[in-house]
Design goal:
single chain, 153 residues, mainly alpha, 5 helices, 2 strands, 55% helix
Length: 153
């Protein structure tokens, strides 16, 4: 029976760091490095394991993309069908320097951290009110204002 290797090569394309020959050696316990010499059971197990790793990494990528988009939305950037705006934001060298859909999990984790820092900084600035002056002497034409002092407790 002739095997169809399309699924294997599609999975390997998603994992460029994986060497096919080393993978075959691993699943044949060092017996061979050739796909054609693998037993059906070994080949099926290798595909199953590679597929599981792919699903896991894809799920993690989706989770981090969602987290990043949530933070980008909180920064005031429209994230609904606005890929040009999202990419313009992430292409900034200070943010990520690459398009959103080209980002790896590590890039997305760094982006989430940067967005959270920006949000925290913005929130802190909004919490501290500007020093207001209160009138202490008010006559027509003359207004004397003094900044409030903090009361020691």
């Amino acid at each position: 029976m002739k095997r169809d290797y399309r699924q294997l090569f599609a999975l390997l394309k998603l994992h460029p760091q994986v060497d096919k020959d080393e993978l075959v050696l691993q699943y044949t316990d060092g017996r061979t490095s050739h796909l054609k010499e693998m037993k059906d059971k070994e080949y099926a197990l290798m595909l199953s394991d590679l597929d599981a790793v792919t699903d896991q990494s894809h799920t993690e990528l989706k989770r981090w993309r969602s987290s990043a988009l949530l933070r980008i939305g909180r920064l005031g950037i429209n994230t609904i069908d606005n890929w040009d705006g999202i990419n313009a934001f992430t292409m900034s060298p200070k943010i990520a320097g690459k398009r959103f859909y080209d980002m790896t999990v590590a890039d997305l984790q760094a982006l989430v951290r940067k967005c959270e820092m920006i949000l925290r900084t913005r929130d802190r600035e909004e919490e501290t009110p500007a020093a207001e002056s209160t009138p202490i002497f008010d006559r027509p034409g003359i207004v004397v204002r003094v900044r409030p002092t903090e009361v020691a407790s």
